[in-house]
Design goal:
single chain, 245 residues, 13 strands
């Protein structure tokens, strides 16, 4: 998939249309609210939409303008927690705008092979590879106030989501509230959630797995009554994990 950058002084996507769904570990970008709506757009789009392959992202480009209209980026787990600054990208060129498809054809895209969350900056990074400091081939393309694509050699190789905890949503909602402010307690809950989720990838004994399930249950009891929508999203995901274990 080769893309070209279309620079602009305006945001390409409204910030409230960028949603992080922890229940499915996906970042949705654009106005579409479900896969049924995406199915109606496929006939008028080029892109990546092989949903049966779990690691494949959904990217839709309008057949006429070749401009990106919709993106669903799968966030790979485990999400590595960065206790220090995530500023691994100093001296990298930054632009603002949108992307267009170079070739009128479908393709298969897997952007988020590795995922990172910075506890200090509340930033989620999902990418094929972390770019090196000062890499002249890499561009950070801001598509909304909080969202940037990482582009290298005319390909999207990652996504950066700032104020990530504000973009968390339960599965039944499709727009984040821009009235929320950064909240230390919310971020602590997100960090605790990610630490628990990451333990699911460990090789646990039956006793350790039962202990972990109890940890999830205690965590759920602590947060289930909190009305904050981002925390409701975490609560929904935790409840799903408990049912699965």
């Amino acid at each position: 998939m080769k893309i070209r950058i279309v620079e602009s002084t305006k945001d390409f996507i409204d910030n409230h249309q960028v949603r992080w769904y922890p229940s499915s570990q996906e970042i949705w970008i654009g106005t579409v609210v479900d896969y049924k709506e995406i199915e109606t757009k496929i006939a008028t789009s080029f892109g990546s939409f092989r949903w049966l392959l779990s690691d494949v992202d959904t990217l839709l480009f309008d057949k006429n303008s070749l401009q990106l209209t919709t993106a669903i980026i799968k966030v790979s787990e485990p999400i590595k927690i960065l206790e220090s600054s995530s500023k691994l990208f100093s001296n990298i060129e930054e632009k603002k705008g949108s992307v267009e498809l170079c070739n009128s054809e479908n393709f298969s895209s897997e952007i988020g092979n590795f995922s990172y969350y910075s506890t200090l900056e509340d930033i989620l990074i999902s990418c094929k590879e972390l770019p090196s400091t000062g890499d002249e081939k890499v561009v950070f393309l801001e598509i909304s106030i909080d969202t940037s694509f990482i582009i290298k050699d005319s390909e999207i190789i990652g996504i950066v989501l700032k104020n990530a905890s504000l973009h968390l949503l339960p599965s039944e909602l499709s727009n984040i509230s821009m009235d929320y402010k950064k909240n230390n307690e919310r971020q602590k809950i997100l960090i605790n959630y990610l630490r628990l989720i990451n333990m699911l990838d460990m090789d646990l004994s039956d006793e350790e797995e039962e202990s972990l399930k109890n940890d999830f249950k205690h965590f759920y009891e602590k947060i289930k009554s909190i009305s904050d929508m981002p925390i409701k999203a975490i609560s929904e995901s935790v409840n799903g994990v408990i049912d699965f274990m």
